[in-house]
Design goal:
single chain; 210 residues; 4-stranded antiparallel β-sheet
């Protein structure tokens, strides 16, 4: 006796009759938020990576005529005054060299002597000293002081020049022996501070000089 063949189940019927969450539950709205919550956001990871990224290392170049290291650049150049060579030392961030001096000729008496570690270190030390002296000279020009003997003790008078490009000026101030400010006025940047001019200012009861 031939067996009767049962009809194959309809997929759409199975989807309709299957309990919710068994077949269609994988695509149901109930599980979507859980999956979304399980996925980590890439934005915090990217921000953390940016924060922890290491800063680029300073550029270091060691060539016979160009040496870059420790915030300085040494460049061997042709001497414009004669047939020899010169070396220029430029500090990072500066447009003009801090030092330009003659450079030793090589053994062939034609090309310059190659730069090396010892020569570069000496050049850095010399250029740094030049900058330090320049800063000291500039400070001495912009900031001056004298001491005047007063009836109640010595009075120190200071002149601080503000080198503004458009409107330079200076501040004239007086201090007693306890460093208490007695007076302060604005004067011309060309004001000449001396013991005599300071004494006159004190005698005139700290009125602004003409």
């Amino acid at each position: 006796m031939a067996r009767k063949r049962l009809p194959e189940p309809d997929l759409f019927t199975a989807l309709e009759t299957e309990p919710p969450g068994v077949v269609a539950g994988a695509a149901s709205a109930g599980t979507a938020p859980d999956q979304a919550d399980a996925l980590p956001s890439s934005a915090p990871d990217m921000a953390a990576a940016a924060d922890t990224a290491e800063a680029p290392e300073p550029t270091t170049i060691q060539e016979p005529r160009l040496w870059v290291d420790r915030g300085w650049t040494a460049r061997v150049i042709k001497n414009e005054d004669d047939e020899g060579w010169a070396v220029a030392m430029i500090k990072d961030g500066e447009a003009e060299p801090a030092l330009v001096g003659p450079w030793t000729m090589g053994r062939d008496k034609k090309n310059p002597k190659p730069l090396d570690v010892n020569a570069f270190n000496t050049l850095v030390k010399t250029a740094s000293e030049v900058i330090r002296r320049h800063e000291q000279q500039l400070h001495a020009i912009l900031h001056k002081s004298v001491v005047v003997a007063g009836e109640e003790g010595d009075i120190r008078v200071t002149l601080d020049i503000v080198p503004d490009e458009d409107h330079p000026y200076a501040m004239l101030a007086a201090f007693d022996a306890e460093q208490v400010e007695l007076a302060k006025v604005r004067v011309s940047a060309g004001f000449k501070l001396s013991v005599k001019s300071a004494d006159q200012w004190i005698t005139n009861q700290f009125r602004r000089p003409d």
